[in-house]
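Deliverable D4.2, example record:
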Amino acid sequence: MHRPHPIPAARGFTLVELIIVCVVLAILSVSVTAAMGNLSGQRRAAAARQLQADLTFARQRAVATSLRTWVVFDTAADTYQVRVESLATPGFAAASVMLDPATRAPFTTRLSAIAPEADLTAAAFDSQPAVGFDYLGRPLATSGSLLAAAGTVSMSGGFTITVSPSTGLITLSP
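Output generated by the structure prediction step:
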């Protein structure tokens, strides 16, 4: 006579196993929460570095082409544009938005596209929200004269970008 095999009893999780899983999940959630909190600060820092790089690009372009290149800030819209003057009509007033060399689109940057938390809080270059660079890389006021004092751009998160009046050196400080 053939005996049927006994059906094994269903085995569940023990209380110790459930507690261990809960502890591991709690540790992972704390780690993820801490990392996510730091992410917004990293995005603001990335936006500040991008602005510093674009100011440096404008300065280098002015030196390379001998055409004054301007960076114009709009703190209300959290944007900035890179503009270039033409040989036919020199000066800030006639400068037109240049095309971004990478995208061939107008060189207008919205900081919220880089970091939703990034805000331009102030931009002052001899009381104007714009700075230009001449063929020697020196910073200019919108009148075309050399900057009399350091110009600054302030951003949320405590970032400040400073343009030195004598050398045009562009520095970022947290």
